[in-house]
Amino acid sequence: MTKIDFVDILSADPPLREKVRQWRNSDEIRRMMLKQHLISENEHAAWLAALRKNDDNKFWIVFVDDE
């Protein structure tokens, strides 16, 4: 049976939040995004800080069978 877990990005630990930034910066993902530039650590941190102030949007990291 497939196991699916959702982790709120704001409760993720720093290494996992950095992994999300790396995913966002990968060519495969970036070309599908509205803003296709490389995201700096500071820009990613600012995005996360803005999420903390806005209850209208939620972002989740999804794990399927722990991956």
Reconstruct the topology from this structure:
Layout: E1 4-8, H1 14-25, H2 27-30, H3 41-52, E2 60-64
Antiparallel strand pairs: 1-2
Outline the structure in words:
- This protein has helices at residues 14-25, 27-30, 41-52, and strands at residues 4-8, 60-64.
- The protein has a two-stranded antiparallel sheet with strand order 1-2.
- The two termini are 14 Å apart.
- The protein has 3 helices and 2 strands, in the order E-H-H-H-E.
- The chain has 67 residues and is an alpha+beta fold.
Reported for the largest beta sheet, the result is:
2 strands, antiparallel
- Unreliable spans are none
Give the termini separation.
14 Å
Question: Helix segment count?
Answer: 3
The helix-strand sequence is EHHHE
- How much of the residues is beta strand, in percent? 5-15%
Give me a quick take on this structure.
The protein is α+β, with helices and mostly antiparallel strands and 67 residues long. It has helices spanning 14-25, 27-30, 41-52; strands spanning 4-8, 60-64. Helix content is 42%, strand content 15%.
